[in-house]
Amino acid sequence: MYYFCYFLLYAIVFAFGAAIGSFLNVCIYRLPKNESLWRNQSHCMTCGTPIRKRDLVPIFSWCRLRGKCHSCGAKIPFRYTLVESLNAILYVLVFAWFGILENPLPAGFVCLLFSALIVVFFMDLDTQLINLGVTGFIALLGLGKTVYDLIFHTGTLLSHGIGAIAAFLPLLLLVVLSGERAMGWGDAYLMLAAGLFLGGKAVIVALFLGLLLGAVFGMIHKVRTGDSKFAFGPYLSVGIALSVFIGQPIADWYLHLLGF
């Protein structure tokens, strides 16, 4: 009975994550076009037929329809299901890491952060733009996380403030000195918001991982296409997500190695 209850809780988290993932698809598609996230009904991109309510079940509907529109038979991009599945799996991993009953509030903060990062990842990949509304949402999460840490004595206001400044200033210099060729303002604002959420130590690891991943994949992209311009936001997002779990331990290990 004990294990069944835990299985049921994680199944609920997975289903909720998939439902949020479905909304993330709407954000990824509509935000760059400045379209309403609420008013327009979801429809087939090929024939324009509104999607039936029974076909709006995340993941399951795509599988049942075999990835095709029920009306015209046009292929439904697999990425919609990928986003739903990714968000659902990440929610389960986060609650497993923090403890589904032990620390539900911090896990909730991180889940919302990961959802926002998924939007940043795919939107920047498509348009090479990072929506300021999404970074603003991450900043609000950071403020909420700061208040939580202060109440439960798991962090300090100074740490979160240092994190925001330490992540923002290096990218600010890159943006200004390169004339936005090496990095855009959206990347700088993303790391500012992430620093507020992660704190001083973890955000430095996030920035390092993001820049490292971006440099590696950027070189691969240039070799394959001959174009040096690419989206940096996806790699910064991955660095931020990884640092939620390993940022603090890596920073502590490195400081210990230096004798601090």
Task: Tell me briefly what this model is.
With 260 residues, the chain is mainly alpha-helical. It has helices at residues 2-30, 60-64, 78-98, 104-127, 132-151, 157-178, 185-198, 200-225, 233-257. Helix 7 (185-198) packs across helix 9.
Mean pLDDT: 88
Number of helices: 9
End-to-end distance: 48 Å
General shape: globular
> How many strands?
0
What fraction, in percent, of the residue positions are helical?
over 70%
Major beta sheet, specifics? none
Beta-strand fraction estimate: under 5%
The radius of gyration over CA amounts to: 20 Å
Oligomeric state of the chains present here: single chain
How many domains? The number is 2
Overall SS class: mainly alpha
Low-pLDDT runs of 5+ residues are none
Question: Order of helices and strands, N to C?
Answer: HHHHHHHHH
